[in-house]
Write a structure and sequence with these properties.
- The chain has 113 residues and is an alpha/beta fold.
- It has 5 helices and 4 strands; from the N terminus they run αβαβαβαβα.
- Helix 3 links the parallel strand 2 (47-51) and strand 3 (70-73).
């Protein structure tokens, strides 16, 4: 229950994600997948999920099955370039960083509007 409640609180209450806003979720763990479903439920989109090689077979595939619009394996491509392609060069409205690593924090600043 707590991860779901925390995800709802983060996406809706703290960040104020709205219908129609584009969202990038960095990190396809349990929390990232829950946040993706909350974003989808409120009508945000497109929703982009990023992950690593080890995430591709299960976590990124699960994100697609749950309705994520795009998945990006950051070990196979440049996240900045791919997000720019998907957003017409303007970036996403919201970035949800769930990896706990330093590099994605820097990437977040480059891919958000």
């Amino acid at each position: 229950m707590e991860p779901t409640a925390g995800s709802i609180h983060s996406v809706i209450t703290r960040l104020g994600v709205k219908a129609g806003q584009s969202v990038a979720i960095l990190g396809p763990g349990a929390r990232g997948l829950l946040m993706m479903q909350v974003c989808k439920a409120i009508g945000a989109g497109p929703i982009i999920m990023t992950g690593l090689d080890r995430d591709e077979a299960y976590r990124l595939a699960t994100a697609k099955e749950l309705g994520c619009n795009y998945v990006i394996n950051v070990e196979k491509g440049d996240i900045r370039k791919r997000i720019a392609e998907l957003t017409g060069g303007i970036g996403v409205d919201v970035v949800l960083e769930n990896t706990g690593s330093v590099e994605p924090i820097d990437e977040s600043l480059d891919i958000v509007r």
